[in-house]
Amino acid sequence: MRKLSTIGLFIDLSDLDVLLLQYIKKLDEVFQFERLTLIHFVALEEVSKEIGDMLPYLDKSLDEILEEEVLEKVVEVFGEQKSSIQVKIYSGGQLDQLVEWVDAQKFDLVLLGKKSVHGGTGVFSSKVLRLTASDTLFIPETAKARIEKIVLPLDFSDYTEGLVSLTKSLAAHTGASILPVHVLKVGRQYFPYIRKPSEFHEALHKKAISHYQKLKKKEGLPDSLEIIQGQDEPVSRSIYDYAIRKGADLIVLGNKGKTDDDTLLIGSVAERMIASDKHLPVLIVK
């Protein structure tokens, strides 16, 4: 079972930070994190000329000023400055170098906020996801700080073992129920060559059930697997709509699936699932 003891949380000194800290506080109450590192990236273009002109006359560096601002938010949410909470201000301006530092920390989980109400392009989060080797949890600003139902999409790819391990750990600590789901999806371009579509789909259905029975026996998963017949909509939409219907609080996905090219940094399902129009937390397992 996977442990969750060291966590990295990206913040941007916006209103979203308090919401993220409230979410992570709830998780901390459950997991008792050994180390929580709050990470703030300062792009070079963010340092205005006005601030740059003022810096020589201040008795503190920009990093120290920003760190104090971060710690004020920590006290606001946690009620105290916990010794397990650290702050990393990176003002080098190179995101890839910061992500290299993040990966070197071997965090059990990295968290990123996702704006919808307060605006935001999502470009920064997408870049981090592409660059990092860490498991990454995306938290929309509308998310509630709870984990009671976890949707576990399965395509029985190489990512399955990691998905199941992390999902079981989350469920064991939070008491959440696990909702396994598999989407049957066949490209429309193949249909003209399928002589008996109904028999073909039945064979795929049986194959998925067979895969799941073996996985269930090995990992102790729930008895039933929800199988969704994918239509014209993307697999990500089928999974997301299922999660909404079930009132889920979290979706756990592999970084890439069976149908994704090995050269891709991130799979198509994961890419769509973290889009701004999705409002459920999504954990991408690398």
TrEMBL record:
Domain of life here?
A: Bacteria
SUPFAM superfamilies per record: Adenine nucleotide alpha hydrolases-like
**Pfam families noted in UniProt:** Usp
Cited InterPro entries: Rossmann-like_a/b/a_fold, Universal_stress_UspA, UspA
Residue ranges constituting the UspA domain according to the UniProt record: 148-286
The entry's family comment says: Belongs to the universal stress protein A family.
| Name of this protein | Nucleotide-binding universal stress protein, UspA family
